[in-house]
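Technical appendix A lists one of the benchmark inputs used to test multi-chain prediction within the project. The record comprises two sequence entries:
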Amino acid sequence: MSAAGTAPRWAAALEGLPHEISAEQDGPCVRVALADLREALKRLRDRAGFAMCTFVTCIDGYPKEPRFELCHQLLSLEHNDRVRVRCTLPGDSAPTCSDLWPGAVWMERECFDMFGLRFEGHPDLRRLLMPDGYEHFPLRRDFPHHGIEPDRLYREWDRKRREHWTQTP
Amino acid sequence: MGSLKAIGAESAGEQGSLGFLATRTDWLINWGRKNSLWPMPLGLSCCGIELMAMFGPKFDLARFGAEAARFTPRQCDLLIVAGTLTWKMAQAARTIYDQMPDPKWVIAMGVCSSSGGMYDSYAVVQGVDSILPVDVYVPGCPPRPDAMIDAILKLQKKIEREDPLGRLIGTAGPMRSEAGSGELQFQPNFGRKRTALDKHAHDPKSRLPIEDPSPRRGGGKS
């Protein structure tokens, strides 16, 4: 969009912050560095009216390094437009945005559950879908689709149950 | 199999008028058990909808004496695992089975609970028979209520062959309900060997070269 000469409405909000605006197939996208991510999200919320965070997700390009890319999709109900904020992560930790949009708490938990991203400052970073005690991150691309010992937690539980039965008179 | 008839029913003489009935005790017990199954529906996914239809008036499981579905395992003797059982749910399913009073039977309804079905996945139990002793498997995705009624009838045939008194005095071998509760024999994908494809399913570097499975005859010349 910026290439076509007409800058998007929210471009002024990001002034002074290094970023790169591009047009993706389904909407505008802005790419920022990890250090500027929180500032960019904050400005987009406060100055450009993106009051809603539609999703927080991650893209794993496994053989590539760095492999993880964080992706926030924001929606402005006031102006009826969307923007996608992408950020390449050097490691597996990222700043949280759950204080900007409280609804992002579960999305970041899911992201942690499936990809193993550590969101710094997240109030409650626990497993969301997989059971507590599960060790792996299933949506990573180097995770085998049959899983790694998928019955491990069940077997541990089963063994304890049997011991309990045999020990109680 | 014995049959339920009064001795001397043919002659209807002095023996028939005595008012007693002769049969085998285990036959009588099995007859009572098979015609009063109390199912515990464990509806885990879309199979549960077909299960509801099975209990409904159109298919009417009450004709076979198994319509009294109770939602507590303590009152049931037939566990119907209807749907995709995940490993996270497996502990709950096993607990429900343990809470059912003996004698008890299990039907694995649908292809997901029979073998994992299309969910060849890290999260899904590849067949509930790895955690429960299954009596009847019902194919289908989901099976029609007719197929479930057929499964109930097959289970009734199976109950007819049981030996309840022999089990009580210990001559009938190990208890049937212990059959599937041993150490877990987990074999994803029927024990097929893993290849490099499974190790890194999406890693293009680890893909094996795929040979043409059916080379054309005649060396490509026609």
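The longest strand of chain A covers residues 52-60. The first helix of chain A runs from residue 37 to 46. Comparable benchmark entries are summarised in Table A2.
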